[in-house]
């Protein structure tokens, strides 16, 4: 990304905010392939355009392979929140996370993790759930909880289209993709341990979002919201796309050097993209008892047909339905505790007595 694009993005993004705190999210590829000087310039532009009293936050997603003391000191000094990609213990992490030369990366990632901890960098773990680690949910969870000391976890299902373009086309998935039912069983296995011993000690994104649904709150995660369109992607040259899952020609909104970000976000094309998630929800999904929690999931995964032959069923539907049905009772218990002004962690004692 040229400085011209970096400065224009920073200025336009800050100017568009009507809130006192703004977060810049850096992803790639691998963002640390840019040198530290790039991020120092990014912070300079943030300070330059921040309004008085405005707080600026930065979050960066990394595979951890390139982290060294200089990077981690920079992150600590500037209070970056780091998302570290870690798929579990060595044997499952190294299954797919190899470097360009085909060598395993686990040792380098763990070295980076220890440096993050040494420099007191706040981090969470992002675990992709795929064909190799999905049979081992508790091994993955125990590793992240007990060896990594991760207090904030995300479990992201790999549903990867098998085609030549790399775009969201076709209904076949690659061999490393997770199965729909498998993903649901992976989540429920972890949930059953978490809800009995780790509530308020470990935060798992999908569990927090699910509790919000049982409280009647709007979906706080785009994949489980009725509509979408608020998670746009900016490329290095200033091109803006409807979503980071749809960085492909027909979803290009324009270039922010030619059209300001707010105009691109509010464009008819983007509004239609977001509303289509609800508009194209299948009749099968509309009648589903867990629709309030799922809302059909991410449109990129709606590649199956319903039992009646209607297109648009989410590849993960069976897993979502299994998970949301399984957690219904403890979620109702935690929601009731919150409504009574009590702490949801009390659910652990209630389950021991039941």
Describe the protein's architecture and organization:
With 354 residues, this protein is an alpha/beta fold. It is 42% helix and 14% strand. The protein has 15 helices and eleven strands. The strands form three sheets. The chain has a six-stranded parallel beta sheet with strand order 1-2-3-4-5-6. A three-stranded antiparallel beta sheet has the order 7-8-9. Strands 10-11 form a two-stranded antiparallel sheet. Helix 1 (3-15) packs parallel to helix 2 (36-49), helix 3 crosses helix 5 and helix 7 (180-197) runs parallel beside helix 13. The protein starts with a helix and ends with a helix.
Helix content: 40-55%
- As laid out across the biggest beta sheet, the strand order is 1-2-3-4-5-6
Q: What percentage of amino acids are in beta strands?
A: 5-15%
Specify the overall morphology: globular
- The count of β-strands is 11
Quaternary state of the chains: single chain
Order of helices and strands: HEHEHEHHEHEHEHEEEHHHHEEHHH
Radius of gyration: 21 Å
Number of helices: 15
- Give the integer mean of the pLDDT values: 97
Q: What's the N-to-C terminus distance?
A: 57 Å
Tell me the major beta sheet.
6 strands, parallel
Which residues form runs of ≥5 with pLDDT under 50?
Answer: none
């Amino acid at each position: 990304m040229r400085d011209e694009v970096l400065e224009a993005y920073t200025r336009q993004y800050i100017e568009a905010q009507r809130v006192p705190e703004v977060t810049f999210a850096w992803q790639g590829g691998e963002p640390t392939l840019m040198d530290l000087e790039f991020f120092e310039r990014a912070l300079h532009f943030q300070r330059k355009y921040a309004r008085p009293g405005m707080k600026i936050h930065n979050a960066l997603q990394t595979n951890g392979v390139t982290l060294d003391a200089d990077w981690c000191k920079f992150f600590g000094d500037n209070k970056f929140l780091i998302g570290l990609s870690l798929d579990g213990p060595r044997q499952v992490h190294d299954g797919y996370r190899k470097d360009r030369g085909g060598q395993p990366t686990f040792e380098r990632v763990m070295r980076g993790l220890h440096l993050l901890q040494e420099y007191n960098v706040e981090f969470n773990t992002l675990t992709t759930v795929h064909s190799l680690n999905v049979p081992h949910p508790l091994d993955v969870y125990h590793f992240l909880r007990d060896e990594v000391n991760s207090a904030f976890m995300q479990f992201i299902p790999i549903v990867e289209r098998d085609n030549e373009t790399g775009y969201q086309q076709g209904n076949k998935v690659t061999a490393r993709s997770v199965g729909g039912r498998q993903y649901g069983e992976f989540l429920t296995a972890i949930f059953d341990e978490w809800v009995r011993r780790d509530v308020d000690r470990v935060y798992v994104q999908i569990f927090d979002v699910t509790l919000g649904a049982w409280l009647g709150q709007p979906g706080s995660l785009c994949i489980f919201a009725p509509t979408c369109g608020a998670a746009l992607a900016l490329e290095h040259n200033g091109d803006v796309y409807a979503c980071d899952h749809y960085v492909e020609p027909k979803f290009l909104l324009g270039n922010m050097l030619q059209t300001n970000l707010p105009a691109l976000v509010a464009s008819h094309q983007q509004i239609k993209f977001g509303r289509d998630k609800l508009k194209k929800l299948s009749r099968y999904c509309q009648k589903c008892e867990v629709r309030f929690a799922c809302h059909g999931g991410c449109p990129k995964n709606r590649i199956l047909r319903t039992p009646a032959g209607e297109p648009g069923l989410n590849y993960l539907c069976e897993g979502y339905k299994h998970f949301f049905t399984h957690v219904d009772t403890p979620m109702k218990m935690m929601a009731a505790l919150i409504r009574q002004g009590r702490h949801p962690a009390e659910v652990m004692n209630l389950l021991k007595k039941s």
